[in-house]
Amino acid sequence: MKLNLLAVFAGVYLVVLYAPIVLLPLFAFNSGSVIAFPLRGFTTEWFGLLLDTPALHAATLNSLIIAISTAIFSTILGLFAARAATRYGFPGKGGIVGFIMLPLVLPEVIVAISLLIVLMQLGLNSGTWSIIAGHTLICTPFAIAILQGSFANMDRSLEEAAVDLGETPWSTFRLITLPLVAPGIVASLLICFIISLDEFIIAFFLSGNSPTLPVYLWSLLRFPAQLPMVMALGTILVLLSVLLLVLAETFRRRGLRRAGLKDTGGFL
Amino acid sequence: MGEVAGIGKLMRSEAGKGLTLISPTFVYALLLLAAPLAMILLLSFWTQEFLTIVRDFQLGNYQEALSDPIYTALMLRSLRISATVTLVTVVLAFPVAYYISFHVRHERKSLWLFLITIPFWTSYLIRVFLWRVILAYDGPVNSGLLALGVIDEPLGWILYNANSVVITLAHAYAPFAILPIFVVLEKIDRSLLEAARDLGESRAMAFLRVTLPLAMPGVLAAVLIVFIPTVGDYVTPQLVGGSGGLMIANNIHAQIFAFNNRPMGATLAVLAMLIVAMTLLWGISRLRFWLWLADRMGGGMRGGAIALGAAVAEIAAIRVAFSAAPGLVGPEAAIIGLLLIVSAGSALILTRVPKGRWGI
Predict the structure, then answer these.
(1) From B247, which residue of chain A is nearest by alpha-carbon distance?
(2) Which residues of B touch A250 (CB under 8 A)?
(3) Residues in A touching B234 (Cβ below 8 Å)
(4) Confidence class for position A267, pLDDT limits 50, 70, 90
(5) What ipTM score was computed for the predicted complex, to two decimals?
(6) List of chain B residues whose C-beta atoms are within 8 Å of the C-beta of residue A266
(7) Which of A196-200, B24-28, B320-324, B347-351 is least confident?
(8) Where exactly are the structural domains of chain A?
């Protein structure tokens, strides 16, 4: 009886968790221009509208540039830190790693305002590059968490064997380590890309005249007439995120299999 | 020469290699996190006249922030909303984490975790906005309840106030609470539970005396990971909070962009961080103290009652002090003094009272 109750609770929990997202396509394909029930009829008009909005295309391009750069930079910084943290012991390790992971728990608004104020005090214009810098800061902890898993799962004796057989440290890294952690790297790139693409606060504070996709979306939310289009855009964004996530998860599992381990859980 | 050789030797040692390897990431974090945080701390002691920053060290911003009822009310509301969100999120998350860890077959666990994390990865803005649709006057919740005959007219109190902020944030932070709890539950040695059952504990007692204490570190991690970011949330209060649900982040944004008062924005940011840290310190230290007291007083109902009494007494005393002291010594002195006293108590407890069997 107790078990059943728990299962029912978990089921209901899952349904509530997905409730908002399920509404998204309902309104995206609804022909009524007001976001409310009852639904009117089926239309793809709002998706068509997306194609005719140049400002949206500019914001999308901006977001893609930011997300791709962020993914690459955070994964590189994550590789350094994750390798150092799993392979070596050094003084102050806990403090250093803890500090690097801090953005994970710090409210984003604090990160955003402090970056903005520094830029303002230095007399610099904020913009695309400053958003990339901020996103890299908050994505690096995620990259480290993923990559640390990959490095920790790797069998160290493989590297030792390569060194014993005459490989240099660099060629060992390139020929042995890198292929073994490659799935983790791909997963990290994808996760950082998703986070950066969806991130709003830092972009909102720093975007200046070139909005990212979420910042542009935010500006649309004020106009009721634009809301059906927002729903259509949201549907696409959610689909894209889920697709990338499934891809990242597939790579993560492949990495685990390559390391000869059983799957024990998800991200984070 | 000797120095150079020394550095070379250090670089080749294990510790040196580790430090060298982590330095790019560490330096990046120092430049983009530590330096900017130091900058806002500095700025909070300056003032701004029109567009120029006056670089004279003064405490005026803090005086204003602590004496103006607008700011103190905002801080208190942010703390109250976040505390409620944290409580709701963790209490609802625990059974789910427990179910996945103890009742779901091993091969299925990662699928469950994956399903729970997916909504977290989808656009935050869109999810918050959808709650506005769901809770709206003519939204699915109201029309559903009307159709079922539960209510006669749409509920007005579920949107554009603190309630809707709590609902939306609790939904958004659900995965953050489930994952840390799940991780500690997975680590619990199942034979301990069998031993408890073999020694005659009921299922409920085995849960209370074995599972729950061992799961506490995960619960604590969940509390931290939900409480800290929610205090500084901007989007949710702005979209679903109305005027009665605005939080500190909204004011920080307004200070910088609308009122062009950067020093005040910086001051509020610093204060928010300080108050969050103090609140957490208070919560953790008191929880440790009350649990310790309950065990010390013989445990069971009696110990529990005494600990509960101590908790209620302290909270009541703090409330009285915070409402009475400003009239006696002025608002800034009262708030600063009381925060110092309460924090000193937290520090004392954390250093003197040992970590108990609850792992807190």
Answers:
(1) A109
(2) none
(3) 108-109, 201, 204
(4) very low
(5) 0.86
(6) 110, 113-114, 117, 179
(7) B320-324
(8) 61-151+180-258
- Region B279-292: what's the mean pLDDT? 89
**Which tens digits make up the pLDDT trace of B90-129?**
999 999 999 999 988 888 888 888 888 888 878 888 899 9
B263, B260, B225, B265: which is closest to B248 by C-alpha?
A: B265
Domains plus CATH for chain B? Answer: 1-43 (no CATH), 44-352 (1.10.3720.10)
Given this model, what pLDDT does residue A224 score?
Answer: 81
Residue of A nearest to B238 (CA): A218
**B177-233 pLDDT per residue, tens:** 999 999 999 988 888 888 888 888 888 888 888 888 889 989 999 999 899 999 989
- Cα A122 from chain centroid (whole Å): 29
Are B78 and B70 in contact by the 8 Å Cβ rule? The answer is: no
pLDDT, averaged across chain A: 86
Closest chain A CA to residue B120: A17
Select from B27, B125, B184, B264 the residue whose CB has the most chain A CBs within 10 Å, as the one to mutate to test that interface. B125
How many CB pairs lie under 8 A apart between chains A and B?
A: 246
Nearest CB to B96; choose among A13, A118, A265: A13
B283 Ramachandran zone, left/alpha/beta (phi>0; psi -120 to 50)? alpha
User: Is residue B56 pLDDT above 90, yes or no?
Assistant: no
Both tokens of B275, joined, read 């108050």
CB contact under 8 A, A90 and B273: no
Calculated CA dihedral for residues B76, B81, B82, B87, nearest 10 degrees: 130
- In this prediction the pTM is 0.87
Q: In the beta sheet, which residues pair with residue A48? A: none
CATH dotted code for A61-151+180-258:
1.10.3720.10
Q: Which residues of B touch A89 (CB under 8 A)?
A: 14-15, 18
Distance from the first to the final alpha carbon of chain A: 32
The pairing of strands B52-54 and B47-49 is: antiparallel
